[in-house]
Amino acid sequence: MAGGRKKMQMRSLHDHLKSAKTDFLFFSQTICPYCVRAARTLEGKNLTYTEINLDEFEGLRSEVVSETGHRTVPVVFDLRGGVPIFVGGSDHLIDYL
Fold first, then answer.
1. Residue 2: which pLDDT band, with cuts at 50, 70 and 90?
2. Nearest of 5, 36, 42, 37 to residue 20 by alpha carbon
3. Tens of pLDDT along 11-63?
4. Residue 50 bridge partners (DSSP)
5. How confident is the model at residue 1 (pLDDT cuts 50, 70, 90)?
6. Is the pLDDT of residue 4 over 50?
7. From residue 83, how far is each of 1, 35, 37, 76 by CA, in Å?
């Protein structure tokens, strides 16, 4: 791994969904213009979000893809209700809001 950074111990997708105390949660990767777009979209609507960088968690990307079928980032969830709602990517988020 570049720079000798260690990846964090994997937390499951469901652990991240349960622990986020914000309006939205999204999974991103380093150097992702669509992730920046999602963050700016949420900020523009005064919505809070938790961003989880998949580059920092070993194996989490494959779990997110397996659970959602969504292969690109960001992978956005609406946490405002009782059950997390899978929104999709940045285009889906803009349409959703």
1. very low
2. 42
3. 788 778 888 899 999 999 999 999 999 999 999 999 999 999 999 988 899 99
4. 25
5. very low
6. no
7. 36, 23, 24, 14
> What residues contact residue 48 under an 8 Å CB cut-off, 6+ apart?
22, 23, 24, 42
Q: Which CATH number fits domain 15-96: 3.20.20.70, 3.40.30.10, 3.90.950.20, 3.30.70.100?
A: 3.40.30.10
Place of tokens 């946490």: 79
Q: How far is CA 51 from CA 4, 22, 26, in A?
A: 23, 10, 5
Domain residue limits, the chain: 15-96
- Return the structure tokens found at 64: 């997110």
Q: Is the pLDDT assigned to residue 7 strictly greater than 60?
A: no
Specify whether the backbone of 57 is left (phi greater than 0), alpha (psi in -120 to 50) or beta.
beta
